[in-house]
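S.,

Sequence below, as promised.
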Amino acid sequence: MGRPSTGRRGALLALAMAGSLASPAMAQVADLRSTTQFRVCADPANSPMSSRDGTGFENKLADLFGQQLGLPVTYSWFPSGMGFIQRTLRMGTCDVVIGFAQGDELVQNTNHYYTSVYGIVTRKDGPLAQVDRLTDPALKDQDIGVVAGTPPATHLARAGLAPNMRGADLFVDRRVEDPMGDMLEGVRNGDLGAAVLWGPLAGPQVKDDPDLQFVPLLHEETAPRLFFRITMGVRMEEQEWKRELNSLIRRNQDAINQILLDAGVPLVDDYGKELIL
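The prediction came back faster than expected:
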């Protein structure tokens, strides 16, 4: 369905990919799934989610599933965003996207295996350290980093903070750009008072940071929602493969949660109201 890039799987890989367009002319395909490899579609530079060097938490989830299936893990690499699904999953070069937002029509979703939430990054010793909602008056005179087109931007605008927003692009190639890293550095050096980012992207980045903190936004009451359920994505036609992955998710949920928590991904309940620790 999420580190934490500001793109897809930025704000998210899972959410950035949700903006991709499917080709209506794409032909239906037979079951293309490999039986000798666990073939993963992934962004090579979407740390802390996925990375070519294997350090992302989605890489670790792929390793877990490969072990459970008794198959070696291989990758089809392509930058997340426009064209990602068509150039990977639909072309048959890989069989699963490890993180994809539930309900997106480009893929067939498995059952969700975690739910996460947007949050606000501030300095631990700064004047915004206690802020936990986007309507807090303390944000009024602060520059706020946010990814253009993501749900928090709507909340900030509704709160009258549109002039304060310092936007970053939703779709970027993180092999050459790092807008999320730039925003975090802006908060660290005082150029920004805060940044509002997708938890799976930002949480791991500030987990051990001596200066910054990530506070989940659990108290927003108006639409759009700021929490999302994250699934694995497979081809529409591959019902048996989806059921097999659902079974693996169910039987390995504790191990999945541990990988995510160790990485610093903020996990919340299915209603986005309570943290899961």
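The longest strand covers residues 114-123.

Coffee later?
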